[in-house]
Design a protein that fits this description.
Elements lengths: L8 E2 L6 E10 L7 H6 L16 E9 L2 E2 L4 E2 L9 E12 L8 E8 L7 E9 L10 E4 L4 H10 L7 H21 L4 E6 L6 E2 L43 H10 L5 H6 L4 H11 L9 H9 L1 H4 L5 H8 L5 H14 L5 H7 L7 H11 L4 H14 L4 H16 L16 H11 L1 H14 L6 H18 L1 H26 L4 H13 L7 E7 L6 E6 L5 E2 L7 E9 L17 E8 L4 H19 L11 E5 L2 E5 L4 E2 H7 L4 H8 L13 H21 L9 E3 L5 E3 L21 H6 L6 H19 L1 H9 L7 H4 L5 H9 L5 H13 L3 H17 L1
Parallel strand pairs: 1-11
Antiparallel strand pairs: 2-6, 2-10, 3-4, 3-5, 3-7, 7-8, 9-10, 12-13, 13-15, 14-15, 15-16, 16-18, 17-18, 19-20, 20-21
Helix pairs in contact: 7-9, 11-12, 11-26, 13-15, 13-16, 15-16, 15-17, 16-17, 17-18, 23-25, 25-29, 26-28
Length: 838
């Protein structure tokens, strides 16, 4: 072939169907440990745990852009004696000419030895077109090394053929290949692809768009044009995603290794220092420009004294550059000022995939106590989704420990980086409250269609940890699981039955009274999944009921025993003297969004208390036990709509009825502590619901307890979504203002001051709140799932981080002073709808 010419065939001219031969599988199968088999006895039936060469099959499917193009095909059954070998050809129902450049073959290895159950052993993908747009030919293997590449060149005759030398070389290659297979912990699948006489290159068919015709001359009449508008077509530009060579050269000059010594002593000028200060104040969602990234890199050693600069620095690192990545993780990370936990949470997000950075974040989380870790646990469970590469790294490290004769859990001997899943499992196994929360958070995610397999592995790891270190907690979790399963079944039966509500209540009482139902008595007392610090001894049927909602949720009251009480407390203790705990169980409703909102309420309450600001927030407990199951803590209270009906349209009458003070006209004859609690809780929920964009607020989901605690329930709409048009941004109803004495009263003025103070305090912790919400983007929260790219930005806009604190507070005060004339009308329409629904 002449060096000035290159002969090839375009892929759109190859009309042969995709075909290949599955040759063999090499390597040893990974067996389940004895502890895993004891935990899941059905694993003992898997072929890989019974025979050295079990019954396996290969399933292959054609994919493009993460979507299947055809039905899956599988190899025929073959009994294996000494090795896994199929030598079977497969043909896909697609021609090479019809495939996009992203087409790939997905191979899945199945264990088919167990009766009526197939188990996935492993999998891999093989792109049909390589990096240069050419299809793979000849023999393809996973983890191909230098010898395999040379062998392919020999097969393509780009290397000279010398018979006597080839024979010796092939023997050496076979020995090297066998040694690599024996030493590797990976499985090696060999697939033969058909060879073509000429190279096949992927190419799009040329566009046949007609060129623009010149204007007709006056002597010749213009013919009617039938050309198609060119703007209707998209022409693929193969160079659009290539790196800009000018920008790349500029980056290399700015970040040259020659300036490394000078960078250590470089100090910013006053102007540059102000610019760096502004960059460090950017919210975590802000994307740095190339100039800002270069500026941070130039003064990276100077910034090591500022803990807030860590995340900005790591965002400025070009991780594809091995030198920059190594200096960032090995030199600068150890010398950086200790970051706050809010920054460590950001490092666990999807923007940071480097294992060394994530390990650094885990080491920072180790400083947190169990109580603080529980505040972030919901988001930390979601962060496990971004740790998938850590699982592969852990598998390799486990193999290395086995080679060195170490215990599988002994990571310190090889100086392995810590993993988030290891930290969560270890801390959960040592703390019953943390362990219960972690177990249920993971259990719900196991049902996820996308990440269910990952969380199943997490659940198995937690189970193995509990078997070794905390068997009583494992037994408690198993009892809780059975309790929730029984409760869900009974709740679903009552919900689907066509009985009237009084008949449903009678059936519920009968179920709770039946000692064989599993919901009557609990011996020993059972720790509730909703609140692990509460142990229930028995249910109280006469105080339990069924709500008249569409889903007919159950309200069940339990007699409890405090976890600190003596274990020999008599079970025959009078129920009237024993403390009680009431839950609401729902079947058919996704409570994960309510669970997130309440968790953020709890966090914000903690942040405000850290600033010595107690706003009497009531973050009742919510736990999703399944995708459509969950339980809620019941707080004795009445909705404002009910209070307005039963107490002459006044919240003060309700408070006076429970906590009167006839000698205090200044507090409207209500005990001062109760009125103070009411004002504080109104201010707290006013600010928090504004920041989270809670919608669908009406008098039926605004509740007030007899001691003055005001709180919100039912968070089906958040982040600005609302079923009503023109909802007010700040949720303050006129009934609340009237209970404070009107807009001119001292209590309303105090209410506004508390709102301003709370808003300013939470604004200082905006990065922590934004980082927590960003970790929930892939959590299947309904109102986040609808617009995942805007969820964090909606909350960020409420903080107004781009202006000063004075301007932000002034803007919030202006919203607070606005009067929504539609709110009263919408409340009346809602009351009418509730009346006709009864």
């Amino acid at each position: 072939m002449d060096g000035d010419f290159y002969s090839f065939v375009a892929a759109y001219d190859v009309h042969e169907n995709v075909s290949f031969r599955v040759t063999c599988l090499e390597g040893s199968l990974e067996r389940d440990s004895p502890a895993a088999i004891v935990a899941s006895p059905e694993k003992a039936l898997l072929g890989k745990n019974q025979a050295e060469y079990p019954s396996l099959c290969i399933v292959c499917q054609l994919y493009a852009d993460s979507k299947p193009l055809a039905l899956a095909q599988r190899t025929s059954y073959k009994p294996f004696q000494t090795k896994f070998e199929w030598n079977e050809w497969m043909t896909m129902p697609y021609a090479i000419a019809d495939l996009p450049q992203s087409a790939m073959l997905v191979f899945t290895l199945l264990d088919i030895a167990a009766p009526e159950r197939e188990s996935i052993v492993g999998g891999t993908v093989l792109p049909l077109f390589g990096k240069k747009g050419t299809p793979h030919q000849n023999e393809q293997e996973t983890e191909a090394g230098r010898l395999e590449k040379l062998l392919k060149q020999h097969q393509r005759r780009t290397l000279p053929h010398v018979d006597w030398l080839d024979t010796l070389a092939f023997r050496v290659i076979e020995r090297a290949h066998a040694a690599e297979v024996n030493d590797s912990y990976e499985l090696l699948l060999t697939v033969d692809m058909p060879a073509f006489e000429l190279p096949v290159v992927f190419a799009e068919p040329e566009s046949e768009l007609a060129l623009e015709q010149p204007a007709p001359t006056p002597t010749a009449p213009a013919a009617p044009s039938h050309n198609v508008d060119a703007s209707l077509f998209t022409i693929y530009d193969p160079e659009s995603t290539n790196e800009n060579i000018i920008e790349a050269k500029h980056r290399r000059l700015v970040r040259s290794q020659r300036s490394n010594i000078l960078d250590r002593e470089r100090k910013p000028t006053a102007t540059v220092r102000d610019e760096l200060h502004d960059i460090l104040l950017y919210p975590p969602t802000r994307v740095l420009t190339s100039q800002e990234m270069d500026l941070i890199w130039s003064f990276r050693f100077h910034l090591t004294r500022y803990s807030k600069g860590l995340t900005k620095f790591l965002k400025s690192v070009v991780w594809s550059d091995a030198y920059e990545a190594r200096q960032a993780t090995e030199v600068l990370l150890p010398m950086w000022a200790e970051p706050e936990l809010s920054d460590a949470l950001e490092l666990l997000g999807p923007s940071f995939r480097d294992l060394r950075v994530r390990a650094y974040a885990v080491r920072q989380l180790e400083r947190a106590g169990d109580e603080e870790l529980a505040l972030y646990l919901l988001q930390l469970v979601q962060a496990l989704k971004f740790d998938e590469s850590a699982w592969d790294h852990a598998k390799e490290q486990t193999h290395q420990r086995q080679l060195h004769g170490l215990h599988p859990d002994d990571r310190a001997e090889l100086n392995e980086p810590p993993r988030l899943v290891d930290l969560l499992c270890e801390r959960s196994a040592s703390n019953a409250v943390l362990g219960t929360m972690f177990f249920w958070y993971v259990k719900v995610e196991c049902d996820d269609t996308r990440f269910g397999t990952l969380y199943t592995r997490v659940a198995e790891k937690l189970h193995e940890q509990l078997v070794v270190t905390n068997a009583p907690l494992r037994e408690t979790l198993e009892r809780q699981e059975q309790f929730v399963k029984t409760l869900s079944t009974r709740c679903r039966e009552l919900r689907l039955s066509r009985d009237a509500r009084p008949k449903k209540i009678d059936r519920l009482h009968a179920i709770l009274a039946d000692k064989k139902s599993g919901l009557s008595t609990y011996s020993p007392p059972l720790s509730l999944p909703l609140d692990p610090q509460v142990c229930v001894k028995r249910s109280i049927p006469e105080n339990s009921t069924v709500f008249k909602s569409n889903l007919f949720p159950l309200r069940i009251e339990f007699q409890t025993r405090d976890t600190d009480a003596q274990s020999n407390t008599s079970d025959t203790e009078d129920a009237s003297d024993a403390p009680t705990y009431t839950i609401i169980y729902k079947n058919g409703d996704d409570l994960r969004q309510d669970q997130l909102v309440i968790q953020l309420f709890t966090l914000m309450d903690r942040l405000l208390r850290n600033e010595n600001l107690d706003l009497k927030i009531t973050p009742y407990r919510v736990l999703a036990t399944g995708i459509l199951d969950g339980m809620v803590q019941f707080i004795p209270s009445l909705s404002i709509a009910t209070i307005m009906t039963q107490y002459n349209g006044s919240l003060l009458e309700y408070l006076r009825a429970h906590h009167p003070d006839p000698e205090s006209p200044a507090t409207y004859h209500v005990q001062s502590s109760v009125l103070d609690t009411f004002v504080r809780s109104c201010a707290g929920y006013c600010v928090i619901t504004y920041l989270l964009g809670v919608g669908d607020r009406h008098l039926d989901n605004l509740l007030l307890s007899p001691d003055g605690h005001f709180f919100h329930v039912d968070f089906g709409y958040i982040l600005g979504r609302d079923p009503k048009p023109f909802p007010p941004p700040v949720k303050v109803c006129k009934e609340m203002v009237e209970a404070m004495g009107g807009t001119s009263s001292v209590y309303y003025v105090r209410f506004k001051k508390l709102c301003h103070t709370a808003y300013a305090c939470l604004r200082k912790n905006a990065n922590l709140i934004l980082n927590l919400v960003s970790l929930m983007v892939d959590a299947n929260i309904p109102d986040i799932r609808s617009e995942p790219d805007k969820a964090v930005l909606k909350i960020q806009d409420k903080f107004m981080l781009d202006v000063s604190e004075e301007k932000a507070v002034a803007h919030f005060e202006a919203l607070l002073n606005e009067t929504s004339y539609l709110s009263t009308m919408f409340d009346r329409l809602h009351n009418m709808a509730q009346y006709f629904r009864q």
